[in-house]
Structure formats: C-alpha cells, structure tokens
Design brief:
The chain is mostly helical. The chain has 23 helices and 2 strands. It has a two-stranded antiparallel ribbon with strand order 1-2. A hairpin with a 2-residue loop joins β1 and β2. α17 packs parallel to α20. It is flat, with a radius of gyration of 27 Å.
C-alpha cells in the first residue's frame, strides 16, 4: 500500500507486487523511467497504477513522462485497467481528466462502480459530442446529485433539446413597456361583450419539446412517422424503442439524418439494425464509415465494409483509439497487403 498526495488529500492505494518492485530502488532510476514511458512489459492495470503513482510523485521527470504516457496510451490498455472492479476512484478520475474526449474509454469509465462525483462533474462541465450525449441520457448517474444536471445545462456544448430534457426552462424576454399615447376617447362598442376572447394559448406558442412532454406514446409514434425534421430530431432521442425506431420509418427522413444517427455512438442496437437492413442507406460511403466505428455494428459487418474505404480512411482506422483491436488489426493488414 502506498500514499499519494493529491492537493491536501492523501490517497491510499494497494500496490501489486509487480508494481512494488518498480517503485522500489530495484533496477534504479533507468527502470522507473522506462516504466513511466510505458516501455516495460506489464498488465494494463499495473501500468496505469505505476503511471498514477509517478504522476503524483515528487520526481518531476517521472511525473512528466507518466503524464505524457497516460495521454497517449492505447484505449485498450486503459480499458484493461478500468476492467478492475475495485480500481481506486482517484485513478479513474485521472483517466477521466486526461481522456475525457475519448468516447471508447469514457463509455466504460462512466459505468464503473467506483467512479466518483468529482469525475462525473468534470465530465458534465467539460465533455462534448458523444460523451456529453451519453452522460446526459444516463438517468442512474443523474440521480446521484442535482449538481450534475446543473453542470450539463451550463455546458457550452449542450444544445437546447438536451437542456430542456434536463429540466431547463428557457428565460422569456419581457417585452418593453408600451407608452400609452393620448388619443381621443372612443365610444364603447355596444356589442363589445359579444367579442370572443381566447382564454387558451394555442399549441404553436409552446415549444415542440414542451408539447412532447404531454404526448402519449401512441401520439409520439405517430409524430415520429409523420413529423418534420425538428420533431424527428427530438423523437430519435426518446428512450422508448417504438418511438425512436419509428423516426427511421418516416418517409421524409433524409440520408443526412440517418448518417447522423449512425455517427451517434449512443444509438441503440435496434437503430443500427434497422439502418443495416436498408440497402439504399448502407450504399452511402459516409454511412459505411460511420457503421464501421460504431460499437454496436457486428464485427463481421464492419470488417466487410472496410473493403470499400479509401486508403486514407484505412490509415486513420489503423491508428484510431475509438475502435476495437480487431478493426485496427484488419486495417493494418489491409495496408500491408496494398504495399506488396
């Protein structure tokens, strides 16, 4: 067990025997420096633990090297560390702060039983794109503290749809007072009391999101099948599968909207399955690209679609940190075959 100073806190971490050897003077500074650079053979969990200790240690050289290594470690190594059920919350917090834009890593970190409120608040305040969308849809996490909803609403990357779903009420601008001008008195209309007055506000005066809150599931499905782009954007985010899948059956939906669904890594298995069944959609090059990197696309399908990619896109996959190792290995194999 070792103690690491974090600000004014002391963090106690159990050190595995393999790590303890490196932390001791065994092998000297050169061995510890190699470990800080990620050059020693060790498990992902042990490597991340070593880097955490060096990062919070007193040696500036080891600290700098450990920081650099943590920022560039392949996602698979971090996922191996996050696979440890009892991983210390402080280690998870360091991973979150350094890799919060990495969707693959954050997808696992967010579901870790040891993740702390500090890490969640950091993500709520700083994340964007798929990570932000994933966090804003996780009701179990949002129930932990109201501060998370507030942080998400104040996040500069949160759109109005997300903010409304989290309980945000758009401020209404007060109209400027109208200065009454003096005019000649007008005789009262004898039939004034007969003029109808609308006591109810027409539905158009409410935002579509507000209307959505009052709709039954059957009405949502109907709107998903017939509504305009704004309705489709709202309803594709619904957690009810009958509702969000109905959006893809809307005859007015554009190819661009469907590609956006495929690019959203939070899209469900069912949404991806429906897209894969549509031959016209999967013919699109951008669709193939999006489906290859989507975590819910079957591996065999993703590998098959890789045959249609340009060499430039294959090269990007070969060094990507957002796809599984099988996709990376296949991309590298394809590049090697082209060189022959």
């Amino acid at each position: 067990m070792t103690e690491n100073q974090q600000g004014t806190e002391k963090v106690q971490i159990v050190i595995p025997a393999e790590v303890a050897k490196i932390m001791s003077k065994w092998g000297g500074h050169s061995v510890r420096l190699a470990a800080a650079r990620g050059a020693l053979p060790m498990s992902g969990h042990n490597l991340v633990t070593v880097l955490f200790v060096f990062y919070h240690g007193e040696n500036p050289e080891l600290k700098a090297e450990a920081l650099s290594t943590l920022k560039t470690l392949p996602a698979q190594i971090l996922l191996a560390a996050l696979g440890q059920v009892e991983l210390h919350p402080s280690i998870i917090d360091l991973i979150v702060q350094l890799r919060y834009q990495d969707f693959v890593v954050m997808q696992v970190a967010l579901t870790h039983r040891m993740i702390g409120i500090k890490s969640l608040l950091f993500l709520a305040e700083n994340s964007s794109g798929d990570v932000l969308d994933m966090l804003s849809h996780n009701d179990e996490i949002l129930r932990k503290t109201d501060a998370l909803r507030t942080a998400l609403i104040n996040n500069a990357h949160a759109d109005k749809v997300m903010k409304h779903r989290l309980g945000w009420v758009e401020p209404v601008e007060e109209p400027e007072p109208i200065v009454a001008q003096q005019s000649e008195p007008v005789a009262a209309d004898e039939n004034e009391d007969d003029v109808p007055v609308d006591d109810e506000i027409e539905g158009d005066d409410f935002s579509k999101y507000q209307q959505l809150q009052e709709m039954a599931v059957a009405d949502k499905i109907k709107m998903a099948l017939t509504g305009d782009k704004e309705w489709r954007t709202l309803l594709i985010r619904e957690s009810n599968k009958q509702v969000n899948t109905a959006v893809l059956k809307n005859p007015r939906i554009s190819e661009g909207e469907v590609v956006a669904v495929a690019k959203n890594r939070s899209s469900s298995d069912e949404l991806i399955r429906i897209i894969l069944l549509n031959r016209d959609w999967v013919k699109l090059y951008d669709m193939k690209k999006a489906l290859i990197v989507h975590p819910r696309t079957p591996l065999q399908t993703a590998v098959r679609y890789m045959n249609f990619l340009s060499e430039k896109d294959i090269k990007e996959l070969a060094k990507s940190r957002e796809v599984g190792q099988a996709i990376i290995n296949n991309a590298r194999r394809m590049l090697m075959t082209k060189k022959r």
